């Protein structure tokens, strides 16, 4: 195989990059990221999310709507309650990998066997002005 062909197979094409960056853009908000992580273990009722995050129903509803619009979550109505779950297993896989490698409280049980132990913590960039 030629080097150019090998390199081309490793690159993300523009259409793929757009889909991935859109997904990451939606998940960049801490509440949305935490909400989707809550769903790694299964579906959750919207009211439970409000209680878990200590915010308003309206705020949770706005975040859920955005996650639904982008196909990250799906909703099922039962009686008077709405239950949410992760719509795409690739999103669940991505979040498990992130959780395993970046969350100090440890990985979820299903990913513990694949843990990468030598990863350094990501440190935020300093906001101090340069002198």
- Gyration radius over CA: 18 Å
Report the average pLDDT across residues. 81
In total, how many beta strands? 3
Helix content: 40-55%
Characterize the main sheet: 3 strands, antiparallel
Class by alpha and beta content: mainly alpha
Low-confidence sequence ranges: 108-131
Give the C-level CATH assignment of one domain. Answer: Mainly Alpha
Q: Note the beta-strand portion.
A: 5-15%
Question: Architecture of one domain in CATH?
Answer: Orthogonal Bundle
CATH superfamily of one domain: Winged helix-like DNA-binding domain superfamily/Winged helix DNA-binding domain
Q: Helical element count?
A: 6
For the record, give the distance between the C-alpha atoms at the N and C termini, rounded to a whole number: 51 Å
Shape: elongated
Q: Would you give the CATH topology of one domain?
A: Arc Repressor Mutant, subunit A
Listing every helix as H and every strand as E from the N terminus to the C terminus, the arrangement reads HHHEHHEEH
Strand order within the widest sheet? 1-3-2
Walk me through what this model shows:
By secondary structure, this protein is mainly alpha-helical. The chain is 50% helix and 11% strand. It is built from 6 helices and 3 strands, in the order H-H-H-E-H-H-E-E-H. The chain has helices at residues 3-10, 14-27, 30-38, 46-53, 57-69, 89-102; strands at 44-45, 73-78, 81-86. A 3-stranded antiparallel sheet has the order 1-3-2. Helix 4 (46-53) crosses helix 5.
